Amino acid sequence: MKTYIDFFKKHGKRFLILxxxxxxxxxxxxxxxxxxxxxxxxxxxxxKYMEILERMEGVFQSNDQLNVIFEIDEDPYSIDGxxxxxxxxxxxxxxxxxxxxxxxxPEEVPVGFRKIDVSEINQDNYKYVINFxxxxxxxxxxxxxxxxxxxxxVLPSESKILKQLAEVLQEVPHYFGGTRYLEExxxxxxxxxxxxxxxLAILTVFLxxxxxxxxxxxxxxxxxxxxxxxxxxxxxxxxxxxxxSVLTILAPIFTIVMGSADGLHFVSHFLDLKxxxxxxxxxxxxxxxxxxxxxxxxxxxxxxxxxxxxxNSESLAQMALISSIGISFAGIATWLFLPIILLNSExxxxxxxxxxxxxxxxFLGKKSVIVSLVLLIxxxxxxxxxNTEFYMIDMYKNTTQVKKNMDKIQDVFGIxxxxxxxxxxxxxxxxPSFANKVLExxxxxxxxxxxxxxxxDFVENLNEKILRREGYxxxxxxxxxxxxxxxxxxxxxxxxxRKAGRILIFPAEISKQSLNKIEKKVEEPIKVTGIPYIMKExxxxxxxxQIKSLILAVFLVFTIVFIxxxxxxxxxxxxxxxxxTLIVLFGFMGYAGIKLSIITATMGxxxxxxxxxxxxHFIESFGYNLKNKKNIDLAIKESFITTSKPxxxxxxxxxxxxxxxxxxxxxxxxxxxxxxxVSMLSSSFLSLTFLxxxxxxxxxx
Length: 701
What we know:
With 701 residues, the chain is an alpha+beta fold. 64% of the residues lie in helices and 9% in strands. The chain has helices at 2-29, 48-60, 79-93, 126-136, 162-168, 179-213, 216-240, 250-274, 279-306, 314-343, 355-361, 366-379, 401-413, 432-447, 455-466, 476-483, 512-521, 531-565, 568-592, 602-629, 632-658, 667-700; strands at 34-35, 66-72, 98-102, 108-111, 114-117, 141-144, 147-156, 174-177, 243-244, 419-424, 451-453, 494-495, 500-506, 527-529. Strands 2, 3, 6, 7 and 8 form a 5-stranded antiparallel β-sheet that branches. Helix 9 (279-306) packs antiparallel against helix 10. The longest helix has 35 residues, at 179-213. The two termini are 34 Å apart.
């Protein structure tokens, strides 16, 4: 280690120049980042529902609609009310990026076997419009609690149209819904998070570490490598992928909060030794006592993240890769630049007694065994209460405008996020036999509380309400005649040239049970698709794949520790604290009703990677002290004194650092905060109490 320090004394300035160049390169990468808001991030690899969705999008140009609801004071069935609805419709249609608007008032209404132009509502055509609306009994105009609500289905061809829509509707109370709305709002929220959360994470970690180190200057040096690692991570993401999502936004935060652990241990040990030895000698001894541990902790944390790659999700694998690279960057920055900084700086140690450390120390021995057993007994049953049903609306807090809008739409119109029934045929899809089959399926779906819209409904309505004939026309010739009377919006549901069509389905609720019921009722050649099905598919793979991922993570970490210690007993006892922590973590999630999603599923592997760090630092310190003290009790006591404060500071730093996610509008980030607190506190407690007790038992046996 002395050679290593001498090398930095000689070449320190060159490394600082290298640091400056790297910072410039990665900083430039930040400007290449764009925000990905697509919910298909949550899909499983080779998703059958995604394949259907892509085929449908190829036929109809737009796979997601926006629900636009607005309140009006006028009676919508009065001439003034109809004029206002038409005026708003025209303004929306004039927005760039709008393919079409499905309004409850078509621009042409059938009168006998001809169509009357009602694009401009006036005294002459008013009676035809009212007659048509009364005949079809539209459910897109509703009176509730003394207010009138009108709903349009807006089909966009481009993203980022919400701002323009809001401007058009600024004079009337309005609400938005639908998958496209949820995706667009993610953009706004992520944009805010990118510029607020990483700086706040650094600040919170800084304050917690200062509590341990006492010196603001020393604290800055300890978090400096993690800050550099986060910058490099974001820059790398810009150069490599060019986009950031609701998943990868966590990577720089992981880097800051988790990557700062090595810097804290390094500076903390250095300060403990600096008053007793010369600066260079203190650095050498610090590297001897913590150097191997820092390498191991970086490797095990990286392994914990990479184990997530075995879950069937490309986006999760990408987040795991980026986070692993970020942690590696922080580790490299710690080894390359922290020695140079400490060699050329004067630090004053400001040791402070820690009541928390004294509290933990009081549990060493039998108390730790009892507490560990209690934790096991209490939290193990919670594993059987885990909920894996996670959908897009679950992402948002109840206080967000998104959730309020969605709740309002469901309250007034009784609809949620839509799904689709898509079909392709080798015959003309307007044939009566096929149409009647589709209409039977629709009726079954409606009887179970779902709302359904299709081309065949338009034709059946015309046939029954206008021409007074029952059901769908009996021959294809009659269908073609009626199609001339249909509003143009039917083309959003049927493409005769491609012999394809789609059915718009609003489930009574978004749940595994309701989605499965819809899928069972739908028959070939109709296939269900939509974002809710893509997320359901992901939900169904999470639990078994998470178990495999955790087993792999524990096995790989165990192997790494065993290779380092070359001692089976040490390797086994090192993974006991994290195994108990995993039970506590998932048991807590079960009790708290926190849904196991593609994001919260990451916590298990993170706990393995981070939790093992505490055990490694303690065992490495114990081995170093046992070699010098030659006494088990003294070695354990000295190891506790040396490691307890940085471990606790790191655990609190992680927990408090991630607590800034409480400011996020996403409920999943709020859950992340809760499970981070539970996992970090239990992991640090077990590593500082139960682990030393196990070590004492094994070495005295």
